[in-house]
Amino acid sequence: MASLQKDLEEVKVLLEKSTWKRVREALTVDKTKIETEIKNKMEQKSRKKPELVGSEKPAAVVAPFTWLYNKFVKIYITITGVHQVSIENVQVHFTDGSCDLLVKNLNGKNYSMIVNNLLKHISVEGSSKKVKTDTVIILFEKECKEKENPSYDNETDPSEGLMNVLKKIYEDGDDDMKRTINKAWVESREKQAKGETEF
To answer: What sequence ranges are listed for the domain SGS (predicted)?
Structure first.
């Protein structure tokens, strides 16, 4: 950690002295990388480490994984032999924006993986884990707010129902969608004014 601080100080000094644009850009990138590395090391230090009981060893960090996205975001973590340990030794702690996997006492080692800074909040209660052959599957249930659906009332004017659907699309749409709807509406009004109806 001390060497990283020294590196950061050196890069800052060089940044102050440099006048060439390309050199300044390279130094700025290096400065950002070093600051991120320092921040990550500080976070790792501040995180509470699991208490070691008896002859337990510190956890090895698990790196390789794949993921799928559906109602759940599924992360597949490959750990050889994980299916051979008892299910109590495979622990996952969820928060609304992260999770912490700990596999205890697998061939005399502990394995750990931390997933931080998820893009969106997850449902802690709905999230879970599964253990398969050589794989731990972590299932993050997405926390979603119910979108209100446009009403389709059979007793009202059909064009009013269509307008409600279009209003809903317009409200939920991005800028391109709004521009497209506005353009179609203006063109339709211009044709109506000229008496050029398509029907």
So the answer is: 123-199
